[in-house]
Amino acid sequence: MLLFALGFLLVTLQPSTGQFPRVCANVQSLLSKECCPPWDGDGSPCGELSNRGSCQNILLSQAPLGPQFPFSGVDDREDWPSVFYNRTCRCEGNFMGFSCGECKFGFSGLNCTERQVKTRRNIFQLTASEKNKFLAYLNLAKNIPSQDYVIATGTYTQMNNGSNPMFRDINVYDLFVWMHYYASRDTLLGGSNVWRDIDFAHEAPGFLPWHRVFLLMWERQIQRITGDENFTIPYWDWRDAEDCEVCNDEYMGGRHPTNPNLLSPASIFSSWQVICTRSEEYNSQQALCSATSEGPIRRNPGNNDKSRTPRLPSSADVEFCLSLTQYESGPMDKMANYSFRNTLEGFADPQTAISNPAQSGLHNALHIYMNGSMSQVQGSANDPIFVLHHAFVDSIFERWLRRHRPMLEVYPAANAPIGHNRENYMVPFIPLYRNGEFFKPSRELGYDYEYLQEPALQSFQDFLTPYLQQARQIWAWLVGAAVFGGIVTAVLTGLFRACRKKKGGTSSEIQPLLIESEDYNNITYQSNF
Question: What backbone phi and psi angles, to 5 degrees, belong to 136?
């Protein structure tokens, strides 16, 4: 009870990060298309008087998109967030947030100048008190309303182009469930028509950066509502697992004794209600999920379709995936071959990297294996195992970044599916984040993974691998350059000696250094790599 009261007090005092800022969910903001709230510190829009930021026009990417979405002007998420707002706060330096009232990820302090790197840990390495605290934090988030954000319950057209706002309150945990739904929902085309081949968070290059931001925001929100600034999301390392190791009442909830599709009554999660799981119903009504309760969490791990997901991922699957050098390839969707992203997401075979949407590997395998709320994309974040799972997926992404050290240009700038180009803003986040901004090592964003911190040989190998790969690609050029350099050196040496002979001098100043044979044998030659 004390924890609940403390959390409620903190959430009323602290800003958060999420979807539609409450202060901008009104007629004036929607009609003016401006969301530039005042910063509480000085009362000026975006904290402009304190040089935190200023209200600016949104700069949208003009790069061409892929062919997967053949429409224009039919979906509120196109050119996010311009349908709702075309002016927002642009923050300076290390400031961030819809009013520039927060620090960027990885910074803290009054002026956001203090660097920090926090460590995400294996859930099985937590002490009993740490684990119980994590479970309590989850339950707290499910029971505290978000003070700074609301969700949209209608499209912009249904809002009469802004003159009839349709928003509602939501608790902190479900805010993130709704955002995951909103990013992956189908496009409503009117009547009973929908377009299903669209997803702003999956099946394309932005899958990994999008979920990285999602977890960072979720982590920060938990820190805020609990006052525990050192909190980090734990991860579940599911490599080579025989079954769902976290599916017991000590952790994320065991199996119900009489209904295998439900959670044990002994788990705090058995009382949770899910939202945004009835996509066909929303589509038939041409409506958005309104975040009303739709029943308990469903989970029946291991009783899934074995022809699609025969087992949980193995260490070998992960290592093969990490060996792939291309982040993205081909059509840059679920049909991409030899793509690290598509293989990790689970649409390509984890042993060949050839696309096979009929099978589910790596990330997708976990979702299918859970055989319940986790197995339906739009509502998958209802199950709290979601955050443990995606934290580990993010750690694999991090390992790939450290091993291959890609330049930002490796992330596609154009022709990716809608919303996934490098400079596109991620749906549905406000404040705004571009995909490319999170295509970089986690330590630059203020966090690390416990199992990646060990200074073992693997770390050196990960460091060395990209340079060896580059050397293999240009070895012929290097050999040619060496031969050419040798010829040039020989020619210059011959000319130099010829010039010396012309001079004919033999004074001690130009005599070669003489080395006795025994001294010569004592000289060692070292090569430096």
Answer: -65, -40
